[in-house]
Amino acid sequence: MYKTVRSFSDAFCRLLCRAAVLFLCLCADFCTAASLYAAAAQNAQDVQPLQNGYENIVDGVAASYVGKNIPGACVIITEHGTVVFSKCYGYANLDTQQRIRPDTDFFEWGSVTKTLVWVSALQLEEKGLLDLNADIRRYLPENFLRNLRYDAPITMLDLMNHTAGFEEYLIDFRYLNEQPVKPLIDVLSARQPAQVFEPGSVSAYSNWGAALAGFIVERVSGQSFDEYVAKHIFAPLGIQDAELKPQWTAETLKRKINGYSHSKKGFRKEEFMRLRLYPAGSLNGTPNALIKYAAELAKKSGTASLLFSDPATKDKLFCETYRSFGAASGLAHGFWEYTKNNGIFGHEGGTYGFQTQLWVQPERERAILIATNVMESDFCRSLMNELVQNEAQAGKETSANANGSASTNAAGGTDTTNFARFSGEYFPARSVWTHAGKLNGYMQMISIQQNTDGTGIVLKKRSDGKSLTYRPIGNNRFYCEEALPEEQYLAFKTESENVISMTFFLAHDYVPAKGRYSTGFLLSCAAAFALAFVFWLASGIFFAVSGIRARRAIKSAPAIHAGSDRLPKVLCAACGLIADVSIIAGMRNWFAIYTIDSVQMNLIVAINAACALCTVCSCAYLFYKKRFCPAVIFSAACAVQLYAAICLGFFHIV
Asked: Where is this region: Disordered (predicted)?
């Protein structure tokens, strides 16, 4: 019994020892795992966010979008230079279900790249090498700008504020396939947009203008823009996992995650975007790298900066430099002021497969970075709205500009009986005005009408067909609670009771759509084009059928033939149909590749010109042969087709 008890005791002791050893091992493993987990959280990988209130907000918004509208997202927030929240959602690759790794995966940052141009400009001004208020022609090759319409000089501040007056740039916007990369000076000089507004008069967002500012940085610094950014911005901040080059390296391509577009059919993988105007939107990098840049910009006023010699220069960076009439927010040396809190500055970036936002709040030393791998703004917009809504000024007020309050309704001095003077159609200032790309502007038009009870105005966007009612808040300003945050305020700049421009959202003013830019004119062009196409198609079918019958008739009765006037008729129909088909094919391709290819555009112009000449000659021959009826009909069809093609911009060489 004793031996049994002792053996049991010994066995029990050994079991306890083993259990103790196992427990200690588990504790050691747990501690190791906990330390790795904490490190991962700090580095924004498979993270456990700090319990500071951000997790519930971000998780709540992400739950509404990730897997539905967006495949993947990464959100990082810093305060006082320290990461306080970092978390990724969804997938970098939907096929393999690869998770997003914010320390290694590259996103396309789109127009966030522009902030590097503006920081560079302030650095050069600090060194006395660049005057932001000087005529930019001082820094450009002689006669470099060929399409200037106004005598008023363009300054670097105009480029920062998007008030230089340039039309939208869509020609050869991106490199296609394996097209060789060209120097920035060649890209900018090859295709220059027309100047359609006087500098400083309206704000029309311009990629070309931002790239021109990047070129000025090159001219002043003596370095290519990518080299300048690498040396003067990335290097001081210790940023290695970011690249800004006109030509991507193999390493960048290897590390880029998939970008997607989303529709009712689901997600579709998009090609990477290689911008010709690379200073305007070609930054690639990891979220962890970009948050370093954002955190540096978010340093409190008067704090020493790694990017500037004098702290006052960074403070100046966030001083407002332009605000459209009645706007809820403005621009600060190219940085956007956030609508609901003008003490937050940043920029949005969108490519064909990515959407990003970078925001900094110096008064709180807070930086917010949002990155998604789909071109969809709602997630970023909703998240920012949730993050700052408690800090926004009460109700419906704006901050820095005395825009009035929505609660004042019609008591702000606006004539409530004369809202009809604002009625009409408005064309986006950021649009192509001179060639076929203007079709994109027609799709973005806005209609304004006084509402039925005369207490406000109704805004309707052609892009989505939705209508919103705006109420007056004084001095030609209106407010709509239900609109998107950046579109809640509407204002009309007038001169002698005539509307000059409409402020709708940041850096995107609208102007009254008159003459060639009205809906009536567009419909007349579309109707003319459709009528001509149907006529030429019907004529082609008729001549094809009649030709077959004629050949059969010739075989049975060789003496019977179609007559000498058949050929010019066939040529008219064929030329008209070829011209219309070339236009349709061109537009279809441009919408598919998100850019207008200059070779294709000029080929379409050449085809239209050749077909028109051939049709005119054929009609002249019919008149000569006194075939007046077909000559008049074909001449009229040709005139209708020419009217549509010329008005829509398909006779404009680019």
From this structure: 394-414
